[in-house]
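Team,

Forwarding the record for the chain on the shared tracking sheet. I've put the sequence and predicted structure together so nobody has to dig through attachments.
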Amino acid sequence: MSPRFTRAACAAATLAAAACLAPGAFAQPFDTPPPPAAPRPLSLATPQMQTLPNGLRVLVAERRGLPLVTAQLLVLTGAEADPPGRAGLAALTAGLLARGTRSQSAPAQAQAAEALGSLLDGSADWHRSSVQLTVTTPRLGAALALLADAALRPAFAATELQRLRGETLDEFKVRYASPGTQAALVAQQAVFGNGAYARPVRGTPAGLQAVTRADVVALHATHYRPDNAVLVLAGDVDLAEAAALAGRHFGRWKTPATPLPPRAAVAGSPAKDLLTLVDMGAAAGQASVTMALPVPARGASDNAAGAVANAVLGQGYSSRLNQEIRIKRGLSYSAFSSFEARREGGQWTASAQTKNESAAEVLALVYAQLDSLLQSPVPADELAARKATLIGALSRSVETTAGLAGQLAALVTAGLPPDALRGRIDEFGSVDAAAVQRYARQHFGAEQRRAVVAGDATQFEAALRAAVPALVKVAPQAAAAP
């Protein structure tokens, strides 16, 4: 029998709801927030790996309880393989894997993925290219069939290449008009000099326009091979089932007789200029202040200390940069930093957007926070809070099968054992104030820093030249479209 909603009953329910929502109805019995709980260990099964006869490695992170699996085919070549004048080739090649095969047009391929309740996605990064999708467990076989067709038998249709190139260049037209993008591009070049890491992963406008279909086909034929690939499966599947399915769908993939080409040089010497201005003229409504410096590779012994140092400086709302620049002075909506340790080197970057007239002040605050980290140990309460932020972010990142697969792929790309993920929280937890200060003194010194300010230079050039007379002034990088 359906409930009867009388006027009296509804009135009583409304009054009860109002009482629950009244101020103080659920007041906490303390005046300050409770302390954070102790970090919990990651509950992850040990990743298992098996190599097929053709050299393809199958890596499985088993997680029962939810019938989902993320399947990612990882090719251990990425943007570092882009030849001179063809920046963006690896990104276009990976993107085209989800734009049609020899047996399916791009729309038919997309519809096949949608019928599995998923989305097929191809992308490239440093030292890796990948194509992946997430499906329910009963559909894993069909998903791997779709994945194999995409990676092994792509069509690389000329019309799809032109369409993807045009979409990327149109996006560049918008992004390159931003002071933040301009500052990031110049900072990357300042840190890595002439090395491959100095180029954007997604390429440059000139490089993208130079890429031909023959270039795409050649890169795929050279680097997409089973002895240079790992099939990562995370979720409701075990190694025996995964290996059987991988053999069925990827077993006929043959390793070429020719060896892989040698790795390209990636991390060049930093530029000599300590401060660069990108003059975008009066059209720049804001300025972007960016600080960048090189850091060791992902497998370095002090990598955990570097991640904690970054958390102190600019990861999260309560980090030092955001406290000083946004909260205390209101000079930016957000000030943050990132720590990207790659296979053969990496980059730490701090960034904030601000009014053109306050750019010099913001840059001085970034310098001051770096100096402070070198000079004084991080207080115990601050260190505990920042480590908790870092540990929480890692824990959240592996809550989904896609996140877990992504973390495993990052370890494989860096040449690290997949099981290293299980000890990452302990590594963060063991970092003390002395380790953070030691890392900062080794890697965040004045001689390593490269600063870039992009915006209307007429409003901040004089103030910056007073501090750094030898600064260099450059024009914005162009973002041509077809």
